[in-house]
Amino acid sequence: MRRKILITGGSSGIGLALANRLSIHHDVMVTGSRPQTDITEPFSSDLIYVQASQSEPETAVKTIAEALLKAGWVKLDNVVLNAGTGFAVKDAIDDIGRLRETMDINLTATILLSRTLYPWLAKAGGTLSIVGSVAHKGQALFPAYAASKGALNAFARALRSEWQSRVAVQILHLGPTRTDMHAKAGHDPGRLRSIFMRPSSMAAMMEFAMASKRSPLTLSFRRYASAGSRLGRNL
Amino acid sequence: MRALVTGGSAGLGQALCDALLADGFQVVNLDCDPPKVISEAGYLYCDLSSREDVDKALDALTAQAGFDLVIFNAGISATGKFEDISTASHARIIAVNAEAPMVLCAALMKFGKINHGGNIGFVSSLSHFTGYPGAASYAASKDALAVYARAVRKTWQRKFNIKVTAIFPGPLKTDHAARHSPEGADAEKRMTPDEAALLILRDIKKGRAHSILGGAAKKLLFWGKLRLNR
């Protein structure tokens, strides 16, 4: 069965890798902050792209809802709220502007999208997958980022027990992945980068995780090494 | 000794201000409402949901002498079906409960307005350990503070000798708790704000990483943890 899938933060990195992967068998709409012409990574021609920057949560939510209506989508089987940003800081003291941006993109926009997309998800009995981070327990290098991801963890937990059988809610705590996230965050992981997951491997694990509907799940080297992603079921 | 308390005009914040005053602190209360009762604490207006207001308050605060003790206590809630709560209310909860305290704290730190040897407290919620269906955005905002406190604690202690405490109160005998607790919840068993304030200040001054109030809360925490680990 072809599913209707919405993925935020899909103009690069993990979001785009997941969108490309899922677009082979499903209808996928992706959102991103940049214009489509600025996308540099391979972008499947089957994808529907919506430009909506989550640094303005209210506007982004409206744009995305309008795009769904325009495309004639009346239900969503899967929503992956993946868009996120973060900044490395010195002495654990965040810059104010960046702290606000992090909260807008990672937390507020995710909550508002969950709220607004509910009717679409409920109609399909769908799954809402929220992308967290292994930093969700706190990290001095990215305090505001860690706080936003910790907040998403609590959010997903509360919403999962509230929505129960109507819409499955899950949080996926992703480990470090070879995307441009670290460069954008102003952090050079150095040689460690060579052991980071490839976005395509992460996308494979995410599809498996989405099909399982379990929560919370940590998707990192260890799960990859246990072959879960390669032998895993598809959506 | 100077102290800053957000949301000090009512409830737990008011009790914290009173306890600090009794302890000999000079206290500044940052709140959007004027104090409910006349207090010796200095009052500074700020609607924490407005970034403009927060920036203005920061201008005023950073023009003053530094603080020895800062408690980020202000918080709002919205309970009900998640999808029935307006997007504006959800955004407001995150702005007031999570973003504003983190912004205020980071800015005060940046300008060196929290004195070395000082203490910072973030009022999170017991929901950090137990979950809180029916208040998902509130739970999110309070976990943001718990995680933020954990993220900065070691670095600030090592570099600035500033200790950070995450505070996890359960429902207290306050108007806020009365508005947002389930029907039929027994308010008699709850701690008064004054009792809670004393325990919280004790833990903050000791520089504890966590302040968890009361035996019932600790029991709840234990079961909550078991549930989470399952």
UniProtKB/TrEMBL annotation, chain A:
One matching Pfam family: adh_short
InterPro entries, per the entry: NAD(P)-bd_dom_sf, SDR_fam
Highest taxon of source: Bacteria
An example molecular function term from Gene Ontology annotations: oxidoreductase activity, acting on NAD(P)H, oxygen as acceptor
Keywords: Oxidoreductase
Coiled coil: none
Family in the record: Belongs to the short-chain dehydrogenases/reductases (SDR) family.
Protein name stated in the entry: Short-chain dehydrogenase
Phylogenetic placement of the source organism: Bacteria, Pseudomonadati, Pseudomonadota, Alphaproteobacteria, Hyphomicrobiales
From TrEMBL, chain B:
GO MF: oxidoreductase activity
Cellular compartments per GO CC: membrane
Keyword terms, alphabetized: Oxidoreductase
Family: Belongs to the short-chain dehydrogenases/reductases (SDR) family.
Protein name in UniProt: Short-chain dehydrogenase
Species annotation: Ahrensia marina
Upper lineage: Bacteria, Pseudomonadati, Pseudomonadota, Alphaproteobacteria, Hyphomicrobiales
